Amino acid sequence: MNRLLACRVPALRILILCMALALLPTPVRADIILLGEAQLPGDSTDLSGLTGKLSDGTPANRLGGLGSAIAYTGQGNRYILVSDRGPHDGNSNFLCRFHTLQITINPRGSKPVQARLIETRLLTTAEGKNFVGSLKAFDSREPSRSLRLDPEGVRIGRTGSIFLSDEYGPSLHEFDRQGKHLRPLTIPARFLPEHPAQMPQDELPPKNNKGRQPNRGMEGLAISPDGNKLFALMQSPLIQDGALDKDKKRIGINARLLEVDLATAKTREFVYQLDAPGVGLSEILAINDHEFLTVERDGNGGKEAQIKKIYRINLQGATDVSMVASLPSRKLPGTITPVSKHLFLDLLSERYHLKGEAFPEKIEGIAFGPDLPDGRRLLLITADNDFVATVPLRIFAFAVDRKDLPGYKAQQFSPTR
Asked: Model pTM?
């Protein structure tokens, strides 16, 4: 090889390598700014009008757990936030409810984020019976008629109705704005335990060999911008999808994302691969009809928290696995392509100065709000305080540059609602 060619070869190789790297999908490099946060005391009272105490001694009107889910109403600065099943993991007679909050953002103000409770509504059946968070509110003869409910996801429909995802079922429901049940939505049988039971330990293998794992049901809920479809995200893999080993330890990473057409009831399913078996999915939020933000987190709070991440995922190119009865624990066959995912926001990044003793364990709610005055997108993130009186209710506000959400479409609401 002559000297001139020898000099050119390394440069040529570098050029080819750079061109190849340019063709690879790259993670979002988000210019995301923390504007601030609003806090409400953990011992605050709601506006339910309830008096007395629950069976565990907690005040019946405790404003707790409302960070489980948040959704923009399309009206001013008003949002719906949902309390989950109540204190002590379903071991109280908590009446299920949702709250309307006014969340005001003023990036230049001394208090950039402020939240005020406006209304509380109890969730009831069409006949007026209260839904409750208690494990005991289980109908063993006809489980679908049980009154127990664990709301973990909320979105507002185009005409103003409220869609909730329930971790117990798992199930999907539509309510009106007064809290009255309108209809359940049908989901594929594979998501349901074969033998649902009152106690979580009675829903594990060998009593159940399919369906959601106990306390790992439909945590996340999104609605397409046009209001035509719901997207329900399981917190962890289904039992039949290689979720557990023989000792019931979590080993699976392939969780299912369910798409439901609200007009036709047709469904599709996609695979979302977790970073590790020990983490779970808490929420999903639509960017457009095929891209979403998801919350993936560990079960630790404070200084022990390691994973509190928001990913951007894309359904385009992913395989519909509706006809796949079971999935492997980890590596998928070549015929199945999972949704693509790229890191969008790491809440534990040093740039936000949130990591530390007080960082919440349960980051569970995300919602877009009205655009900020300078045109940036508003992203709100909420934490579930598990009804602990000494733990504040926290709402974080982030400003997202438009270039970091190039395909974003705001949710549409009917002008006649």
From this structure: 0.91
